[in-house]
Design brief:
Distance between the termini: 28 Å
Low-confidence stretches: none
CATH topology: Glutaredoxin
CATH class: Alpha Beta
Mean pLDDT: 96
Structural class: alpha/beta
Helix content: 25-40%
Largest sheet: 5 strands, mixed
Radius of gyration: 14 Å
Number of helices: 5
Strand content: 25-35%
Number of strands: 9
Number of domains: 1
Order of helices and strands: EEEHHEHEHEEEEH
Length: 150
């Protein structure tokens, strides 16, 4: 299943870096930047997280909250947040259930080797929980992602 603009986002989003369940209703009245990324502490993912960190105040002023998702563990997320001083939560989608709902988990290929992985995709969800915009893997600018959203 792939969610697209106009679809309702699921209520249960997963568990954050501290083991707390995160729900869409936790962000009621705010726009949500839900971004899926391949792996903590890799160059592209770090650049993207740091762009969102550096633009976080501007995003908040514009009414957005930010939430990252990867298949990494909660402890990996805690280290990534601490190392990069990220001001937002990360969901540990270790069973890839959320990624599969959003259509961001699938077969990838690198150097001729095929494997299952996360597609770097950002969903902008409005105050009512409807997906407003999707920034697909070819469009995501990791170094200027916050500006791209604004």
């Amino acid at each position: 299943m792939t969610l697209k603009a106009g679809d309702k986002a699921p209520e249960i989003l997963g568990v954050n870096q501290d083991g707390k369940e995160i729900r869409l209703s936790d962000f009621a009245g705010k726009k949500l930047v839900l971004y899926f990324y391949p792996k903590d502490n890799t160059p592209g993912c770090t650049a993207q997280a740091c762009s969102l960190r550096d633009g976080y105040e501007d995003l908040r002023k514009a009414g957005y909250e930010v939430l990252g998702v990867s298949a990494d563990s909660a402890s990996s997320h805690q280290k990534f947040i601490a190392k990069q001083t990220l001001p937002f939560q990360l969901i540990a989608d270790t069973d890839t259930k959320l990624a599969e709902q959003f259509g961001t988990w699938g077969e990838k290929s690198m150097y001729g080797r095929k494997y299952m992985g996360m597609f770097r995709t950002t969903f902008i969800i409005d105050e009512q929980g409807t997906i407003e915009r999707v920034i697909d893997p070819k469009e995501v600018n990791t170094k200027a992602h916050a500006a791209q959203i604004l």
